[in-house]
Specification:
By secondary structure, this protein is of the alpha/beta class. It has helices at residues 21-31, 65-70, 84-95, 108-111, 116-119, 147-153, 174-197, 207-214, 216-223, 253-262, 277-282, 284-295, 300-309, 320-324, 327-331, 372-379, 384-392, and strands at 12-15, 35-40, 75-78, 99-102, 127-132, 202-206, 236-238, 241-244, 315-316, 336-338, 346-348. It folds into two domains: 3-216 and 331-392, Crotonobetainyl-coa:carnitine coa-transferase, domain 1 (Rossmann fold, 3-Layer(aba) Sandwich), CATH 3.40.50.10540; 236-316, formyl-coa transferase, domain 3, CATH 3.30.1540. β7 and β8 form a beta hairpin.
Length: 396
C-alpha cells in the first residue's frame, strides 16, 4: 500500500505539536494516508528528538527512538513561528491545509495571530486541534502538566497500587498516548463534520479530561456510595512470569468445576469458600494462594491458553519480548521493520485498528528540515536566495 492508497490521502495536515500526544495524532493521520508536514524549531527540532533512548546511548537529534516512532510517515520542515516572518509563512501553509495540530500553551498561538479565530477567516474549512494539559478555558488553563501530573489530577493513579501504600503511576507515558488517541478521534470527527457541513472547527483537547474519562466509572460509583479503593493484586507467579488466572469472579459455576478438576482439586468445587462468584471474590487472596501452587511450575503462556480454552478470562503479564513474539500480533502484522538513514533498521509497532482490512501505513520519520526545499521552494515559490536569507536569520 502506498501513501496515496490511504483513506485520508486527500488530507493535508500541519503538525506543530511536540512531545507525545500531538505527534501521535499526526502519526495516525499519516498512517491513514494524509500528508502530514511536521513543523519544527530550526536547529533543535521537536523536544522528543532529545528524549531518547538513542542507539548505543549516543545522543543524536536524528536517532531518538521517541521521535522516530511518533513522527513516522511525516514530511519535515523547520520554521520559527515566534518570528513575524515565520508566522506569516505558517498562515500561507494553513490556507492550503485541512488540519492543524498544535500543543502550545493557551494564548500563545493567538499572540502570534495564529489562533483559530485568526486562521478561520483565511480557511473556513480548517480543522484546528489544540492539545494542552487542562484545555483552552477554565481556572487551570495556564497550568503546566506532564504524564505524571495528568495521571494524578485525572484520578487515574487513585485506584492503582496496594491498599497500604501510596498510589503509583502507570508506567511509560500511558496518559499522554491516550490523549493522542483522543486528539486523533476529535480531529477525525471534525473532519467528518467538515465534509458533511462544509465548515471547520476548533478541537480543544484537555489531557485532564481525557484521563478522567478513563475513570468516569469511579465518579459514577461514588455517587451510589461505592468509594473507589486500591485492592490487593490478583496476580500469581508462574515459572516464567505473572498470570491473572481470572478465576476469582470471572467464571460460571460449571467452568469453575472444570478448573478444579484441572488443578487436581475437585473438592474445591463444593467448598463454600469458593463455590460461588461472591465467595471467590470475598476469599480472593486465599484462592490465589491455592492457584499459585498449581501455576508455580508452569509457563505463563501455557496457563493462559489452557484456562482460555475453558472459557475463563485468564491473562498473563506480557514483557516487550512477549509482545514481539506474540502469535496474535504477528498474524495481524502489527510490527514492521523500517530503515532510517541515521538510526538504521528498527521494528516499529502499528496502530490499534485496521480499516477495511488495511493496517496502518508505515514509513520512516523525517530528518530535521528534510523537506524544506519541497515545501518552501516548490510549493510556496521561494527562491534559493530567499531561502538562504531566511536560514541566515534563523527562521528556517
Amino acid at each position: 500500500m502506498t501513501q496515496q492508497d490511504g483513506v485520508l490521502s486527500d488530507i493535508k495536515a500541519l503538525d506543530l505539536s511536540e512531545g507525545v500526544s500531538g505527534p501521535l495524532c499526526g502519526k495516525l493521520l499519516a498512517g491513514m494516508g494524509a500528508e502530514v508536514i511536521k513543523i519544527e524549531r530550526p536547529g533543535a527540532g521537536d523536544e522528543s528528538r532529545s528524549a531518547g533512548p538513542f542507539p548505543n546511548d549516543d545522543p543524536n537529534l536524528e536517532t531518538s527512538a521517541a521521535y522516530l516512532y511518533l513522527n513516522m510517515g511525516k514530511k519535515g520542515i523547520t520554521l520559527d513561528v515566534e518570528t513575524d516572518t515565520g508566522a506569516s509563512i505558517l498562515r500561507r501553509l494553513a490556507q492550503e491545509s485541512d488540519v492543524l495540530i498544535e500543543s502550545y500553551s493557551p494564548g500563545f498561538m493567538d499572540s502570534r495571530v495564529l489562533g483559530y479565530s485568526d486562521l478561520e477567516p483565511l480557511n473556513p474549512e480548517l480543522v484546528y486541534t489544540s492539545i494542552t494539559p487542562f484545555g483552552q478555558t477554565g481556572p487551570y488553563r495556564e497550568y503546566k502538566g506532564g504524564d505524571l501530573i495528568i495521571q494524578a489530577v485525572g484520578a487515574l493513579m487513585h485506584p492503582i497500587g496496594l491498599p497500604e501504600k501510596e498510589p503509583i503511576k502507570v508506567g511509560g507515558s500511558a496518559a499522554l498516548y491516550s490523549v493522542g488517541m483522543s486528539a486523533f478521534s476529535g480531529t477525525m470527527m471534525a473532519l467528518y463534520v467538515r465534509d458533511v457541513e462544509g465548515y471547520g472547527q476548533h478541537v480543544d483537547i484537555s489531557a485532564m479530561q481525557t484521563v478522567t474519562v478513563t475513570q468516569i466509572h469511579a465518579s459514577i460509583h461514588h455517587q451510589f456510595g461505592r468509594i473507589p479503593t486500591r485492592r490487593e493484586s490478583a496476580l500469581v507467579e508462574a515459572a516464567d512470569g505473572w498470570v491473572n488466572p481470572g478465576l476469582e469472579i470471572g467464571v460460571q459455576e460449571d467452568t469453575w468445576k472444570k478448573v478444579c478438576d484441572l488443578m487436581g482439586l475437585p473438592e474445591l468445587a463444593d467448598d463454600p469458600a469458593f463455590n460461588t462468584r461472591e465467595a471467590r471474590r470475598m476469599n480472593q487472596q486465599d484462592l490465589l494462594a491455592i492457584i499459585g501452587n498449581w501455576v508455580a511450575q508452569q509457563p505463563k503462556e501455557q496457563i493462559y491458553h489452557t484456562l482460555q480454552g475453558l472459557r475463563t478470562i485468564a491473562g498473563y503479564v506480557a514483557t516487550v519480548e512477549d509482545l514481539r513474539n506474540s502469535e496474535q500480533l504477528q498474524f495481524r502484522e502489527f510490527f514492521k521493520t523500517i530503515d532510517h538513514p541515521e538510526a538504521g533498521e528498527a521494528v516499529y509497532p502499528g496502530a490499534p485498528y485496521s480499516v477495511d482490512g488495511n493496517a496502518l501505513i508505515q514509513s520512516r520519520a523525517p530528518l530535521l528540515g528534510e523537506h524544506n526545499l519541497e515545501v518552501y521552494r516548490d510549493r510556496l515559490g521561494y527562491s534559493g536566495a530567499e531561502l538562504g536569507r531566511l536560514r541566515g536569520l534563523g527562521i528556517l
